[in-house]
Each structure stands twice: as C-alpha cells, then as structure tokens.
Amino acid sequence: MKSxxxxxxxxxxxxxxxxxxxxxxxxxxxxxxxxxxSLRERGSDAEAxxxxxxxxxxGGGARATAQMGLAEQALGRWIVAEQHLLEAxxxxxxxxxxxxxxxxxxxxLQVQQRLGTIALEGGLPNAxxxxxxxSVGRLPLVTPLRVVAGRVVVEIxxxxxxxxxxxxxxxxxxxxxxxxxxxxxxxxRQAEPIVATRTPVAVATPPTRPSLPPVAAVPPAAVPPAAVAADSGSGSARPLGVAALVIGGVGIxxxxxxxxxxxxxxxxxxxxxxxxxxxPRIDVCPxxxxxxxxxxxxxxVGFISGAVLGGLGLTLFAIGGEDDAPADSAAMACSFTGxxxxxxxxx
Length: 347
Prior knowledge:
This protein is of the alpha+beta class.
C-alpha cells in the first residue's frame, strides 16, 4: 500500500515537472519569435532568421517555421523559403496558420515564381550531381531538383569518366530536362623518353649601314601674333555652364517628385491595413515597402545630381565670362637691315 502511494506521488511530481518544462519551452520560443519579428521590422533579417530557427528547435511549432520562410524570402534564399512555407501551410489546423494563411500563401506564390525544376536522365548510378559548383546529390534522381530559375550550370562527376558539363536554361515556374551521357576517359599512354640534342646555331651578322650626312636644323615657323590672339578667345565655357544649370534644375525637380512619392508610400506603409496577425509590416505590405525604397533612391539621385550639376554650371558660367573679356590687340615686329634695325608696330 505504501509503495503504491509512493509511486503515485512520484508520477504526479514527474508530470508536473514535464508540464513546467514544456511551458517554459513554449514561453521561450514565443519570446524568440517576438524578438525576431522586432528585428525584421528594423531590417535585420539574417539575425531574425537565427532567432526563428532557435525558436523552431525549442518547440516554436508552425509559427516559427512560417517566420523562417518569410525571413528566408527577404534574404533571397528561395529554395529553403519554399520548403519552410510549404511545411507551415501543411499544418492547416494551427490557429496562427489559419489567421496568417492569406499572407503566407501570397509569399509562397512570390517565392515559387523565382524557382523551377530540372530533371536529369541517364548517367551512371552514384554519379555526383553538382549545380553551380555545389554538390546536391547523386544519380539516379527520385524526383526533379528544385533550382532558382535562369541559367544553371550542371556538372556530373564519376570516377573514370570525363566530367559532363552543360548550361541549362530553367524557366521561372517551369521545368527543364537534360539527358546525361558520360564518356570513359582514354587510357593514359606511357611517356617516351625525350633525348635532348644540341644543334649548332648560326649567328647572323647585322649588315653595316652607310653613314648619312648631317641634317641641318630647321628653325620653327613663326606664328603671327594675330593668330595667337584669335585662338586664345575661342571655346567659351558659358554654353556648357548654361547646359549644366538646366540639367541640374531637372535633377532638383526629380528629387522633389521622389520626396512626394516617398511621403505617400510611408503613409500607406504606416496605415492600419498593414497590421495583421502580429507579423512584420514588410510581409503584410511588401509593395508599399518597395515603393518607399524606390522613391528614396529617386529622391537621393535627383537632389545630389542637381546640386553637383548646379555648382558645376555656376563655375563654368563664371569662367566663361572671364574668357570672353576683350584681349589686347597691340603687336610689334623688328628686323635687321643693312643700316640698322627697323621696327613696325600696331596699336
């Protein structure tokens, strides 16, 4: 009787400890997810992904898996993002997944538009598959490989065979197929010894060139002073300055338009419609966030280019004014005569 009572007490204590441990894990996972969401709001997607992965490992459930997929989407890790989003959406009975289903399904569609599949046929069993320099498995394939759409370099390696190398175009949302044909390496031939022989080389004597008579120095031609004066006044910088000022004004106008668009996008991003199911705004309203970034770039380029070109235009305009000033047209020339020196001048 006493032993049965003692066993019951121990069982109750053990169940209470297990319950407290599970509650502590759940609380820790929730805190990690909340911290990760805050980091994503500040644009720290990589740090947030690490917290979401830690939460998933400590019992975060479907919510942690979904947040991992969203963070991987923001980081451009399309293949693993698709895997985690699909895994989260399969848990359709989870209350959080039900509330966030529309956002998650939209994100999954955007990710899948970046991906395609590639099927490999033929080859040899156990041959290594390398895509874009990364080993992804061995032949034969049970299912086609999921890859990022675009140009994919496919390499198949097998001992004793020449590496199979192809560049395959995988369409977005589509599939590509490649037949692998491996060719055996030729047997290596034994190298024959090479006997070095020395052949006498005739040295050619360069022919002698006849000496040439010295060339008399020719004095440089005199440039008339009037020509020099005409050249110094050409190429005024004023037209360039005017053009730079006009283009700078256009840049300032573009910057003003960018600032207006940015203010509107920020207003849309901060509206209540971008708040839903305790998720980052960037996942609920990705279009508004992209408009903010684009408008910020337009505003910065417009204002900076306008300021630089405006300053350059003012400088060229001032330099051009100095170049257009009238030059002194006085000139004098002297020459030796039989009786002395004769000089002529123009003033």
